[in-house]
């Protein structure tokens, strides 16, 4: 889990118990770490390399999982329509999904925190301009905006759908909507902090705005940002999966979990259930685990933070 | 009141202007309309002629003005892929999407509000914990996975409900409705549930959070201190306060339901605007994308304006400020 | 008091406990006994954490979970209170007990009309029909002194002022003719003049309707003005109880003596507040001497020459604004204000909330720009037309102390780095080590231990934080410190310590203080000269003693007469 690792105090399980995490949250946290860990180490632990065209053959296509009657022990979770080992594809796919989700969160959080700080601290016209842009962006649902961005990108550069560019475009497509949430939260928190006496004290001393914002306000508005980042990581992974499922995300040659489900969906009716099921299950478990941790973090550190306009 | 209305309309116009500008930029600069619209082997002269006839040699501002004028008169261009007017395509697809969204909204409100209240009033009860767990799974499951699972269970395994399409529709003027036939209604069930599920969890969580907040407020404490009956405090007083933000969020959610319908429509092959849009994206059919953007923008702005006005009517604080 | 009727409230040896997560229990109230007869106002006073609100909540059966009554009895109108049911047999909350809370702004539901909130109680408890309830609501509004009651019935809470809302809250509490009213800090959120009206109203209700009132408050002046009997609490225990005049005049318990002694007096100026055990004497004096030496190295003038001049100062605030279709509303917060502060004096600026005094503090310290007029420090314009940039020594010269000690220190930084910030920023120390030494000295100068530098703000109490906030201001070696309500969120005994500290520092370092306060008694104790503000304008300026002994402006007279004070004790005036 990226956010936990980047927070000042790493959340080791023992620390989580000490600060009162219920057992379900600890299990969820462990599960999330497990999936992320496996995904990050995909190139070492995966039995095959699904991006290497030479490593799979059509003759192995659509083999069921090893534990079923017709299964092949070489392919633990079976193979997809091109004969790729599903487990390997999923490990690599999870890595792609997490990388894009994490990247989007990072871009969105950075942008949102900076703009939110500026808007909240300076107020007036700066605030009006930033928040008007945010309002217009918020007028469009994430998925629509993401579709538009990737649609325009495809129209502008022919290479947009390739494995090299698709992740960048996906990250931008998701982040363009998500930064607003950070900006709004940080702006509101910054306005509260700016009115507080310690900021007034810093102003009376005559510290420059950049220093007041970075040294004094930023540390005090970061905890909601970390909470949103956790919950948003789950949302970003979902959005990426949705885009890939719709066919405007990662290409089949370099699939994410969403792409795998898209491929699998075409075979569900013919009884080849595993191609869709296993990636879907992984996706849901990953997102659920991150959400459970995120929810708990929110209740613990910031009960006021809610799904609200 | 008038002032709020005017300021809201001003904002709405601003948003629409931005949206139309984006739409115009897409239309004009993304992809080359001339090469998309002319024959494969058109000569340079033919292309120049087409360029002139489309007005592409004029200054950008003039082109934008013309684009606005054309848009206002209902002409949104011709789909590259279908070679039919975009307005016509959207009009055909609109009823399917709106009916789906309507069903989903009703479902999510009808279930979300009572469940949210339940969770807020008895936060440690078994029912509340179950509902909470369910809601977490709900927001963690992508819409398309829900859809696939529902199809597998109710259409493929049990065979109770259709897995794709709208079933039989009845035409009422230009509006085709699925509400009037049994097969139409049956076809609405699975996509309706799929679309509603995500919103349901959202509304439920919102109601729960608001309700908990309101229940700990001073005025509810004061109501308790006046010895008013529990039921009255919970359902007459607190619920009303808690539902205020729900109005805003529901308004916003209707907009995002329209967008989420893209996914649901893809899974269920539902012949709505979303399916049209997603096909347009894969084929880089710019006029359809631009038109869809404009259209959804318009719907959004309309709904938000209505919600804001509604809000001002319901909340006495705003009513007074605007009077 | 009548002895035939049973007391409306009899609390006997009450003990309230809160089980804590770690298995132990916290005792919020211990062995408390209170009796209130009909028509009697019994004040429950104490500083924060004394357990006074807990008693009020226990009586109403509104103890916050997991608090519980562990021992003792509560009898309401002679009927025993059942701690399990959370009420007394035959006693209905709302009908037999009325409640008034602190903040009238949040006690009423914003979405319902005054009528609906007044009548719902009567319709529930008295089974009145709509018309009868409405008629009674009208009567009640008249009884609590709300003008145009017919029109107000249809109003929503936000359309009423704070004082009117509190009247409505009182009307709601009275709606079913209760025998007992629990009023928890009913005037704390109100201005002095409104407070006086509400107190008179409560007294009349007790006298005319025979209602027993349990008045929870921290304000000794309020107690003196309306209470018949008073119980002083400290850390959950009753310290002293008795008739108001006796307890206030001749307190016996040491804590009660200290508490009453710490209340700033408006009638006479004292040199210092009597305080139980002051901290860090010897080292503080040394540190202060060092501070003075440093201050004089840069500049030395404490001779009564003008240091700060405010000339024709006006500040407008815009509300609303830039949205298309809406025009901004202009609000004049400060209107043509003139005054001069002389070097070495304590200049007080008093007024009720919203009078513009804090805005002036903000302009002087450079946080807000004036709309017109000027502020001149020595011979340099620091705000308004012709302003020189506030940098270096000019910026350094004016520092500020704030109201809320909990928000005035950044909770993410150690005390050491908070205090070092101005020192390093103004380059007042050549090396880090020198800055650290200065910080240690500052901390000692405000009466704390130098080790405090290693800790974070949350390790300190409100009073200690306020000391540290003062230390930060001193770190810049200022000539003038603007004190914006420096003690109004502190308990009275802590307030006394902080005010003593400010006096000592002024004497030791020759600082000039601009003291902003709403509390006339504090201002009298602290200031050499005082300016009174009302609705943005200055109404009167005079030497402190002159202002209090013979105020000129009617508004000043009114303000002074309205302050509830210890020298006008109810019962004594009756006897006199």
From TrEMBL, chain B:
Transmembrane segments annotated in the record for this chain = 12-31, 100-121, 133-160, 172-198, 242-270, 290-314
| InterPro entries membership | BPD_transp_1_N, MetI-like, MetI-like_sf
Which source organism does the UniProt entry give?
Microvirga vignae
Q: What is this protein's record name?
A: ABC transporter permease
Q: Which family does it belong to?
A: Belongs to the binding-protein-dependent transport system permease family.
This protein's major location comes to membrane
Membrane topology label: Multi-pass membrane protein
Q: What is the lineage of its organism?
A: Bacteria, Pseudomonadati, Pseudomonadota, Alphaproteobacteria, Hyphomicrobiales
- Tell me the Pfam families matching this sequence: BPD_transp_1, BPD_transp_1_N
GO biological process annotations for this chain's record? transmembrane transport
TrEMBL record, chain C:
A GO cellular component entry from the record: plasma membrane
Keyword Transcription regulation listed? no
GO BP term, example: peptide transport
SMART domains assigned to the protein according to its UniProt record, in alphabetical order: AAA
Its record classes its membrane topology as: Peripheral membrane protein
Q: Which domain of life is it from?
A: Bacteria
Q: InterPro entries annotated for this entry?
A: AAA+_ATPase, ABC_transp_ATP-bind, ABC_transporter-like_ATP-bd, ABC_transporter-like_CS, Oligopep_ABC_C, P-loop_NTPase
Keywords per UniProt: ATP-binding, Nucleotide-binding, Transport
For this UniProt entry, the molecular function terms from Gene Ontology, in alphabetical order, are: ATP binding; ATP hydrolysis activity
SUPFAM superfamilies membership: P-loop containing nucleoside triphosphate hydrolases
In terms of CDD domains, this protein maps to: ABC_NikE_OppD_transporters (cd03257)
Keyword ATP-binding annotated = yes
Give any Pfam family that matches: ABC_tran
The subcellular location is: Cell inner membrane
Residue stretches spanning the membrane: none
Per the annotation, which location comes first and is thus the protein's main one?
A: membrane
Domain ABC transporter stretches: 9-260, 308-560
Q: Which PANTHER family does this UniProt record tie to the protein?
A: D,D-DIPEPTIDE TRANSPORT ATP-BINDING PROTEIN DDPF-RELATED, TRANSPORT ATP-BINDING PROTEIN
Q: Which family does it belong to?
A: Belongs to the ABC transporter superfamily.
Q: What is this protein called?
A: ABC transporter ATP-binding protein
Organism phylogeny: Bacteria, Pseudomonadati, Pseudomonadota, Alphaproteobacteria, Hyphomicrobiales
């Amino acid at each position: 889990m990226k956010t936990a690792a980047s927070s000042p105090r790493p959340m080791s399980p023992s620390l989580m118990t000490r600060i009162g995490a219920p057992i379900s949250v600890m299990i969820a946290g462990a599960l999330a770490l497990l999936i992320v860990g496996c995904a990050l180490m995909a190139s070492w632990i995966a039995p095959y390399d699904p991006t290497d065209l030479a490593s799979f053959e059509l003759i192995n296509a659509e083999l069921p999982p090893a534990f079923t009657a017709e299964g092949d022990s070489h392919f633990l979770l079976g193979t997809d329509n091109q004969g790729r080992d599903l487990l390997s594809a999923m490990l690599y796919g999870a890595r792609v999904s997490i990388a894009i989700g994490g990247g989007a969160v990072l871009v969105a959080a950075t942008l949102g925190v900076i703009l939110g700080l500026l808007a909240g601290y300076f107020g007036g016209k700066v605030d009006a301009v930033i928040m008007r842009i945010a309002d217009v962006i918020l007028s469009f649902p994430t998925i629509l905006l993401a579709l538009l961005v990737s649609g325009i990108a495809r129209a502008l550069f022919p290479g947009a759908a390739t494995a090299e560019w698709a992740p960048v475009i996906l990250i931008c497509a998701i982040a363009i909507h998500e930064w607003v949430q950070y900006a709004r939260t940080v702006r509101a928190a910054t306005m509260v902090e700016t009115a507080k006496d310690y900021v007034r004290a810093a102003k009376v001393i005559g510290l420059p705005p950049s220093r007041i914002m970075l040294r004094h306000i930023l540390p005090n508005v970061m905890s909601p940002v970390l909470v949103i980042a956790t919950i948003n990581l789950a949302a970003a992974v979902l959005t990426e999966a949705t885009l890939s499922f719709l066919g405007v995300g990662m290409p089949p040659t370099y699939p994410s979990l969403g792409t795998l489900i898209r491929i699998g969906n075409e075979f569900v009716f013919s009884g080849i259930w595993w191609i869709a099921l296993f990636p879907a299950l992984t996706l849901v478990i990953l997102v659920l685990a991150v959400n459970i941790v995120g929810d708990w973090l929110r209740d613990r550190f910031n009960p006021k933070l809610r799904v609200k306009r | 009141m008038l002032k709020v209305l005017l300021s809201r309309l001003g904002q709405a116009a601003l948003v629409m202007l931005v949206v139309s500008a984006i739409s115009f930029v897409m239309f004009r600069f993304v992809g080359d309309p001339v090469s998309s619209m002319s024959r494969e082997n058109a000569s340079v002269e033919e292309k120049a002629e087409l360029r002139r006839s489309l007005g592409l040699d004029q200054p950008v501002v003039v082109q934008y003005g013309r684009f606005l004028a054309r848009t206002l008169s209902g002409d949104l261009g011709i789909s590259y892929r279908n070679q039919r007017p975009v307005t016509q395509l959207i009009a055909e697809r609109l009823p399917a999407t709106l009916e789906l969204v309507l069903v989903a909204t009703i479902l999510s409100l009808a279930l979300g509000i009572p469940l949210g209240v339940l969770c807020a009033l008895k936060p440690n009860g078994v029912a509340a914990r179950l509902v909470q767990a369910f809601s977490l799974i709900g927001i963690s499951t992508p819409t398309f996975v829900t859809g696939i699972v529902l199809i597998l269970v109710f259409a493929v395994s049990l065979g109770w409900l259709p897995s794709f399409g709208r079933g039989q529709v009845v035409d009422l003027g230009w509006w085709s409705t699925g509400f009037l036939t049994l097969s139409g209604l049956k076809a609405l069930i699975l996509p309706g549930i799929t679309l509603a599920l995500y919103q349901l969890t959202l509304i439920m969580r919102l109601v729960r959070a608001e309700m908990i907040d309101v229940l700990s407020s001073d005025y509810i404490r004061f109501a308790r201190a006046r010895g008013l009956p529990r039921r009255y405090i919970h359902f007459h007083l607190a619920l009303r306060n808690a539902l205020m933000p729900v109005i805003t969020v529901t308004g916003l959610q209707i907009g995002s339901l329209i967008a989420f319908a893209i996914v649901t429509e893809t899974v269920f092959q539902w012949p709505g605007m979303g399916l049209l849009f997603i096909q347009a994206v894969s084929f880089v059919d710019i006029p359809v994308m631009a038109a869809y953007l404009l259209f959804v923008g318009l719907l959004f702005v309309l709904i938000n304006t209505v919600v804001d006005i509604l809000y001002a009517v319901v909340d006495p604080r705003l009513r007074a400020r605007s009077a | 008091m009548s002895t035939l009727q049973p007391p409306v409230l009899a609390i006997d040896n009450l003990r309230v406990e809160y089980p804590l997560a770690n298995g132990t229990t916290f005792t919020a109230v211990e062995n408390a006994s209170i009796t209130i007869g009909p028509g009697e106002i019994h004040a429950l006073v104490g500083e924060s954490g004394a357990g006074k609100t807990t008693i009020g909540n226990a009586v109403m059966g509104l103890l916050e979970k997991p608090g519980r009554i562990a021992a003792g009895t509560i009898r309401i109108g002679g009927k025993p209170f059942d701690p399990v049911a959370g009420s007394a047999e035959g006693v209905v909350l709302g009908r037999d007990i009325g409640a008034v809370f602190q903040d009238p702004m949040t006690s009423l539901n914003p979405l319902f009309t005054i009528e609906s909130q007044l009548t719902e109680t009567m319709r529930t408890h008295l089974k009145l029909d709509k018309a009868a309830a409405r008629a009674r609501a009208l009567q009640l509004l008249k009884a609590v002194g709300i003008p145009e009651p017919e029109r107000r019935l249809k109003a929503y809470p936000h359309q009423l002022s704070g004082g009117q809302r509190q009247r409505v809250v009182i009307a709601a509490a009275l709606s079913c003719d209760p025998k007992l009213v629990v009023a928890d800090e009913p005037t704390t959120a109100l201005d002095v003049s409104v407070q006086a009206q509400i107190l008179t109203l409560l007294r009349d209700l007790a006298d005319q309707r025979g209602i027993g009132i349990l008045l929870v408050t921290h304000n000794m002046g309020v107690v003196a003005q309306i209470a018949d009997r008073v119980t002083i609490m400290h850390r959950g225990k009753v310290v002293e109880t008795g008739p108001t005049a006796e307890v206030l005049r001749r307190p016996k318990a040491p804590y009660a003596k200290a508490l009453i002694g710490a209340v700033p007096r408006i009638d006479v100026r004292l040199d210092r507040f009597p305080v139980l055990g002051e901290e860090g004497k010897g080292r503080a004096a040394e540190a202060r001497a060092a501070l003075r030496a440093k201050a004089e190295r840069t500049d030395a003038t404490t001779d009564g020459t003008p240091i700060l001049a405010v000339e024709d100062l006006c500040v407008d605030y815009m509300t609303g604004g830039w949205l298309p279709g809406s025009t901004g509303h202009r609000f004049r917060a400060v209107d043509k204000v003139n005054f001069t502060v002389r070097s070495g004096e304590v200049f007080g600026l008093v007024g009720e909330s919203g009078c513009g005094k804090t805005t002036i503090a903000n302009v002087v310290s450079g946080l807000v720009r004036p709309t017109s007029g000027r502020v001149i420090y020595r011979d340099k314009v620091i705000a308004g037309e012709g302003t020189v940039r506030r940098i270096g020594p000019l910026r350094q010269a004016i520092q500020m102390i704030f109201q809320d000690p909990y928000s005035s220190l950044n909770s993410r930084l150690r005390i050491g780095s908070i205090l070092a910030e101005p020192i390093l920023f103004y380059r007042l120390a050549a090396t880090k080590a020198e800055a650290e030494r200065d910080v240690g000295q500052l901390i000692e100068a405000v009466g704390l231990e130098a080790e405090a530098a290693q800790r974070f703000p949350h390790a300190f109490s409100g009073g200690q934080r306020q000391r540290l906030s003062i230390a930060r201001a001193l770190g810049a070696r200022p000539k003038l410190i603007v004190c914006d309500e420096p003690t109004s969120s502190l308990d009275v005994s802590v307030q006394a310590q902080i005010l003593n500290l400010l006096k000592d520092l002024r004497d030791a370092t020759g600082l000039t203080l601009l003291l902003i306060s709403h509390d006339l008694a504090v201002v009298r104790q602290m200031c050499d000269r005082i300016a009174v503000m009302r609705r943005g304008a200055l109404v009167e300026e005079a030497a402190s003693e002159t202002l209090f002994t013979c105020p000129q402006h009617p508004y000043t007279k009114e303000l002074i007469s309205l302050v509830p004070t210890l020298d006008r004790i109810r019962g004594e005036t009756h006897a006199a």
